[in-house]
Amino acid sequence: MADFNKILDAGDVDGGIINVVVEIPTGSSHKIEWNRELAVFELDRIDPQIFAKPCNYGFIPQTLDEDGDELDALILTEQPLPTGIFLKAKVIGVMKFVDDGEVDDKIVVVPADDRDTGNAYNSLEDLPKQLINQLEFHFSHYKDLKKAGTTVVESWGDVSEAKEVIKESIQRWKDL
């Protein structure tokens, strides 16, 4: 398996098109994580089915969030994407998120070339409000059966705020 952090970088952050690697497909309750030391995907745990991911979940190569992991991405597509692929993704916003007291932001992206939607999504405002509500609910409650109240969606940010979060994470990676 390729080491995504060696063969890919974060992409064209200023241009709003970044590289994203898929860890968890939409609808899965498997918490699959990229193991940076071994350069493989690892099953971390199986979450209750009621907390299956409402969207594809992945990471941006050569970034490091404040929680010590690569910066997370929420990848919005109609169909699940398989673990282990990467895509060019358009940045449309950021979900400001805290997990057990640590900043764990999520960059919201869509495929850079989405002919199914006619590339209709360019910002969070373009998304159905119900989808935003579902994402917020999921991430506010997915740990409730184990450790209730430890996850908080603090706010949502626009494309420029998302790009700043990515740039800060790239700098953390470089400082590693």
Automatic annotation (TrEMBL):
InterPro entries: Pyrophosphatase, Pyrophosphatase_sf
Broad EC category: hydrolase
GO molecular function, one term: magnesium ion binding
Top-level taxon: Bacteria
Residue ranges the record marks as coiled coil: none
E.C. number: 3.6.1.1
Main location: cytoplasm
Gene Ontology CC terms: cytoplasm
UniProt KW Cytoplasm keyword: yes
Subcellular localization: Cytoplasm
Positions contributing to Mg(2+) 2 binding: D72
Keywords of the record: Cytoplasm, Hydrolase, Magnesium, Metal-binding
Name of the featured protein: Inorganic pyrophosphatase
Residues reported to bind substrate: K31, R45, Y57, Y142
Cofactors: Mg(2+)
